[in-house]
Amino acid sequence: xxxxxxxxxxxxxxxxxxxxxxxxxxxxxxxxxxxxxxxxxxxxxxxxxxxxxxxxxxxxxxxxxxxxxxxxxxxxxxxxxxxxxxxxxxxxxxxxxxxxxxxxxxxxxxxxxxxxxxxxxxxxxxxxxxxxxxxxxxxxxxxxxxxxxxxxxxxxxxxxxxxxxxxxxxxxxxxxxxxxxxxxxxxxxxxxxxxxxxxxxxxx
Length: 204
Fold this sequence. Notes:
- The chain is mainly alpha-helical.
- It has helices spanning 2-19, 21-48, 52-61, 87-90, 92-109, 116-138, 160-183, 186-203, and strands spanning 67-68, 73-80, 142-148.
- A hairpin with a 4-residue loop joins strand 1 (67-68) and strand 2.
- Helix 2 runs parallel beside helix 6, helix 5 packs antiparallel against helix 6 and helix 6 (116-138) runs antiparallel to helix 7 (160-183).
- This is Lipoprotein signal peptidase.
């Protein structure tokens, strides 16, 4: 156990040295405000646009309220589980454990992020995770959905937390993809192509 703690301590020290004190605190401040604002947006829209009774009645009798602004619409729906329906296979205990572990991982990674863009997208994912997890804890594993796309009949009903959960990982992947693209040794690739094309000519 002492060896594990020592390894973790050394790992954290190395990460701290790579990032530096200023960047570490900057990451924490940026992530704090992003998570705070996005969780507030998610929870306030869920609880102020429609009442709990609206959600309950719509879930039993169909959508009793339907507000359309053309590009976006609002309708109340209580959704038990997660969008992928994986809760039917693994159960809600596993969903809660996964949400907790994801939070721990993100809370650890965010301070040591070397890129502000990566910090932002990880914070967005964390906000989405917390937004729906708050619902599950407070509402007996049900999540309040209220958004839909009026111009797309198969869009289903979702919430802001779902958008954040979708946008966060995509942003993280894009940041890493751009890094990989930038770090490619284009000179080496170009020379390799020239060398290969020269060999092909010699073969003829």
